[in-house]
Amino acid sequence: IGLSKFAQVSLTQVISRNSIDNPIFPSYGSNFSLSFQMSGGPVLPGNVNFHKWNLQSEWYVPLFNSSRVTLYLNSEFGYIGEFADNAEIPFNDRFYMGGTGLGYIATTPLRGYEDQSVGPRNANGQIFGGRAMTKQTAELRLALAINPIPIYILGFVEGGNVWETWKKADFTDLKRSAGFGARIQVNPIGLIGFDYGFGFDDVLPRDGNPDGWKFHFVFGRGF
């Protein structure tokens, strides 16, 4: 991937609505957010010209009339458009997917796959990020203990993908995974836990076999 110099000025606006009952271990409610980022364009200076959209909806549904068992549903969509034809998008502003989403480049988590392993690649097999993405998650959560130390276990199924452009996006072509995990709140450290996920689809190396089991460590982040 060649290196380019960018002069970039961006403006970001986020619209959100949140009705969840707990920021760390929600058991009911919903969370909707729409973010819009404008870089360059008709107003802002610089040689970077694009607009970026992210839409996310989260639902928390208590099951069996209990706050200890919760169904979590999540849908995410992302799109990057150009203000000018053939505009170059900086690599750190593109969409990446895989792993737990940790790292110096913002990445959409997808358990069961390595960090930033899902998405378009160049002729050398290097991930270069995309301009369209989606991810869908369903997760069943069970609270083993709430006080004094919250301990939760979970099972999940996920599917997501990143495409080079919107025209190349196929929202039925998702990289699928399933697995289980656990979370514990340890003060003053915060939330720690793990996920163990199985990637059902071939990502890298492209040998026709499933990506297999991956262990993911989770630290300092809410559910």
Give your account of this protein's structure.
With 223 residues, this protein is mostly beta strands. It is built from no helices and nine strands. It has strands at residues 10-18, 29-39, 50-62, 69-82, 132-145, 151-163, 175-186, 190-199, 212-219. A nine-stranded antiparallel beta sheet has the order 1-2-3-4-5-6-7-8-9, with no helix packed on it. A hairpin with a 6-residue loop joins strand 3 (50-62) and strand 4 (69-82). The model has no long low-confidence stretch (mean pLDDT 89).
Helical/strand content category: mainly beta
Query: Order of strands side by side in the largest beta sheet?
Result: 1-2-3-4-5-6-7-8-9
Radius of gyration: 19 Å
Sheet having the most strands: 9 strands, antiparallel
H/E series: EEEEEEEEE
Number of strands: 9
Poorly predicted parts: none
Tally the helices: 0
| Chain oligomer state | single chain
Mean pLDDT: 89
Strand content: over 45%
Globally, the shape reads: globular
**Percentage of residues assigned to helices:** under 10%
In whole angstroms, the N-to-C terminal distance is: 35 Å
Task: List descriptors.
mainly beta; nine-stranded antiparallel β-sheet; 47% strand
What's this model, at a glance?
The protein has 223 residues and is mainly β.
Secondary-structure blueprint:
Layout: E1 10-18, E2 29-39, E3 50-62, E4 69-82, E5 132-145, E6 151-163, E7 175-186, E8 190-199, E9 212-219
Antiparallel strand pairs: 1-2, 2-3, 3-4, 4-5, 5-6, 6-7, 7-8, 8-9
